[in-house]
Design brief:
The chain is of the alpha/beta class and 433 residues long. The chain has helices spanning 59-68, 86-91, 115-127, 160-177, 201-208, 225-244, and strands at residues 20-26, 34-40, 47-51, 77-81, 131-138, 153-156, 186-189, 212-219, 349-351, 359-360, 365-369, 380-386, 395-396, 399-403, 408-418, 423-432. The radius of gyration is 21 Å and the shape is globular. The relative contact order is 0.14. Keywords: Hydrolase, Metal-binding, Zinc.
Length: 433
């Protein structure tokens, strides 16, 4: 990667003395105590809220948010919550010590699900931001199937102007920082109301506060931390330029000393924005917490939030397990499947129930049951399982027993195929501690 990182706190055009900087803590005296930072410019303008560290193993997001805290802004208000989930950050895991995924605790139309989520939402409600940017990481690059990861993507709320801003941002960052077209940033919509995965912070902020919301996913594998932090910071800077830097180009230290050589400029990224019917990523999470994205999607779109172990973006959750993560039911080999064929739906039920929301002891056995999967236009002929967390399908059958000895998070994939050759994939993450 030809990416250079400079001091992120280089000033813009406003004198530091003219800024108002303050901070306060939430849940003081508890394990979840964390700090909110507020920077106010002398010129009125929108409020931008940047949050990182919702998942504790997505390091670049919270480090970037900490550096963004020091930015000099020319207008409006910048609010940052870099370490949203301090217990998970301390554990370097996606979930906290009770196995709770913080980014599933913000249901629309009802109260947040935990004390920490409630405290965070209270801050959002107080500042009522115009723009919300949530920073995440994934171990895989988004390529239309959330099972593979949701990295290098900017997911956004469902308004045309927001979609255009996301697309312009992706193009600008790709032109300046990306010399490998395989790592070009793409864009995608948040999932529609009533679709899984649900409970994401950006969903609630978009639909209850009417904010323009963005969920940013960088890919953590084969990229240095410094590079990923630069990507996050550059994306936030571009998304927030009109709000925080309306007069001049911001100077927050992201620009490389020299632009990419002309022959090194990347190919244009895939134009997902022009085809919103494309399946988009979900949030994937694995043992390092970086294969995920908080994928949000509806039937034709999604979001990423760094957890590839929850719900595929295209999926629907079962009551006890995980929902479909790849419901298009086709790939390059599916040319013989009728156009009106309804793809199967892969669903995992577990015993004990709700295994994805629990924390297991080492060597505890979990039964994974695929019998609740369905094939509306035929019958299921194949049930394949990936148990070893390496993407290969090494088990088959309607049910399998899994015993995990090592502590951490372990991703399990299920792929079902019907008699027409259409298939669907879903996954869940088992947490052992």
């Amino acid at each position: 990667m030809q990416t250079q990182t400079q001091d992120q706190s280089d000033p813009g055009s406003t004198d530091e003395a003219d800024l108002s900087r303050s901070s306060f803590t939430i849940l003081e005296g508890t394990d979840d105590e964390t700090t909110v930072n507020v920077t106010e410019a002398p010129t009125d303008g929108p409020t931008v809220f940047v949050i990182g560290g919702i998942h504790g193993n997505e390091t670049a997001g919270y480090i970037a948010a900490e550096e963004i805290t020091e930015w000099t802004i020319d207008a409006g208000t910048l609010v940052t919550l870099p370490r949203a989930n301090p217990v998970a950050i301390e554990r370097t895991t996606r979930v906290d010590d009770e196995g709770v995924d913080l980014n599933r605790q913000f249901p629309e139309g009802s109260d947040p699900g935990t004390e920490l989520a409630t405290a965070i939402w209270d801050v959002f409600s107080e500042f009522d931001p115009d723009i919300v940017i949530d920073l995440h990481e994934s171990r895989g690059i988004y390529a239309g199937d959330p099972v593979d990861g949701v990295g290098q993507a900017i997911f956004h709320s469902r308004r045309d102007d927001v979609a255009q801003l996301a697309a312009d941002t992706a193009n600008a960052v790709n032109d300046t920082y990306i010399d490998d077209s395989n790592r070009a940033f793409q864009t995608g919509y948040h999932s529609a109301p009533g679709n899984d995965p649900s409970g994401l912070l950006v969903h609630k902020a978009s639909r209850e506060l009417n904010a323009d919301t963005f969920l940013v996913e960088t890919v953590s594998t084969q990229n240095e931390l410094e590079t990923r932090v630069t990507w996050h910071s550059a994306i936030v800077e571009h998304l927030a330029t009109d709000a925080l830097f309306p007069a001049d180009e911001p100077d927050n230290g992201h620009e490389p000393d020299e632009p990419l050589d002309e022959e090194e400029e990347p190919d244009d990224p895939p134009a997902n924005e022009n085809d919103p019917d494309e399946t988009e990523p979900d949030d994937g999470d694995d043992s390092s917490g970086e294969n995920g994205g908080d994928g949000e999607n509806d039937d034709n779109s999604s979001d990423g939030d760094g957890d590839n172990g929850d719900n595929g973006e295209n999926g629907k959750n079962s009551e006890n397990g995980a929902g479909s993560g790849d419901n298009d039911g086709s790939d390059d080999s599916d040319s013989d499947i009728p156009a009106d064929h309804t793809a199967p739906t892969a669903t995992i039920r577990t015993e004990p129930a709700n295994a994805a929301d629990r924390t297991f002891a080492p060597d505890e056995t979990i039964t994974l049951d695929a019998t609740c999967s369905s094939a509306p236009d035929g019958e299921l002929v194949s049930y394949e399982w990936s148990i070893q967390n390496d993407g290969t399908y090494d088990e088959s059958g309607q049910t399998v027993d899994v015993t995990v000895s090592a502590t951490g998070e372990h991703r399990v994939l299920l792929r079902v195929t019907d008699n027409a050759g259409a298939h669907d994939t879903t996954e869940l993450t088992l947490t052992v501690n």
